[in-house]
Specification:
This protein is about 20% helix and about 25% strand. The chain is globular, with a radius of gyration of 20 Å.
Length: about 325
């Protein structure tokens, strides 16, 4: 039985030496390790210090979500290893890795070799994420709806724009600012992508810097798990081969992966560049997907952006992930 207090209080110190080797050592076992690691969140029952399940006023078990890394054990079975805030696997007092039951994990491979798509756990629908805002559906509710994997479909930009069922909505000012900030990640306009095609390494590197800055850590060396898990939160999918390709594929020198000690070095963060003005947000249904349309300035020749975003619980301070982008 998983003890909740253990998860909340136990964290591993990320004992990483400061390395700045720019060369991406693709022959290094550690550098290649978990190049396609899958991350996600699993729902677990909350227990008290005695190991008893905590229940609400109706007698139902109280649950929470924990970040996990999915790996195969020696028998080929998928296991979910619990991660701490640094993206490191949590261990108990005896040094054993803490795991939780995998609810439903499916890895789908797209046509291209480097476009593995990650689908994480699914649960039955809970209360809708949408709340009434001036007669339209908005995002003021803290509850979200999750769907089984076989019913979860991320629309493409083209599908979303052509959809006759989408509905214009009014986001709260806080949610609007959050989405605006996410679309103003420096240099994000350098690539467009659809969810099924996977996230381009070059823009993922800029998102990684932005997410790392939000961590507020007084360091220039980051545990690899911190960076990779933050990327999963931002895009709601694993950025395939990020560790083994970022040094060659990214278009900046601020973020360097060190294969010798499985860490990232960050020389500096990036200043805001493009300005995005949100013109319209439309609810697409399914699994909390929205189409965002905006004007863009200070992005070279790009003057327009379309984004598919999802409301989710992957990052409590964001509440959204960017599932597709089209700059024009």
């Amino acid at each position: 039985m998983l003890i909740f207090t253990l998860l909340m209080t136990m964290s591993l110190a990320a004992c990483k030496s400061n390395g700045t080797n720019k060369e991406n050592d693709k022959t290094s076992e550690q550098g290649l390790e978990a190049g396609d690691n899958e991350f996600g969140f699993e729902e677990v029952e909350v227990t008290d210090k005695n190991g008893e399940v905590v229940t609400d006023k109706n007698g139902k078990p109280v649950t929470t979500e924990v970040a996990v890394k999915y790996e195969k054990d020696k028998n080929g079975k998928t296991v979910a290893k619990v991660l701490d805030n640094n993206g490191e696997v949590v261990t108990d007092k005896k040094g054993r890795e803490v795991t939780v039951k995998v609810k439903d994990v499916t890895t789908k491979k797209a046509k291209k070799k480097t476009t593995t798509k990650k689908n994480t756990k699914s649960t039955e629908s809970t209360k809708s994420t949408t709340a009434s805002t001036k007669g339209n559906e908005g995002t003021t509710s803290k509850e979200i709806t999750t769907l089984p994997l076989d019913k979860d479909k991320v629309p493409t930009i083209a599908e979303a724009r052509k959809s006759s069922e989408k509905k214009a909505v009014t986001f709260s000012s806080k949610d609007q600012q959050t989405v605006k900030n996410m679309l103003e990640v420096p240099e994000l306009y350098n690539a467009s992508y659809e969810n099924a095609d996977g996230v381009p390494i070059n823009i993922a590197a800029h998102a990684a810097l932005w997410m790392a800055k939000r961590e507020g850590l007084n360091t220039k060396t980051y545990a690899s798990g911190t960076i990779v898990l933050d990327l999963f939160k931002y895009f709601a999918q694993t950025v395939v081969n990020f560790k083994v390709e970022v040094n060659d594929e990214s278009d900046n020198d601020n973020l360097v992966y060190n294969a010798n000690n499985d860490s990232f070095s960050i020389a500096g963060f990036e200043d805001k560049k493009q300005d995005v003005t949100i013109e319209k947000i439309e609810y697409l249904g399914n699994n909390n997907y929205y189409l965002v349309t905006g004007k863009v300035k200070n992005a070279g020749s790009k003057t327009k952006v379309y984004a598919i975003i999802q409301k989710n619980k992957l990052d409590a301070s964001l509440g959204f992930s960017v599932k597709a982008l089209k700059w024009s």
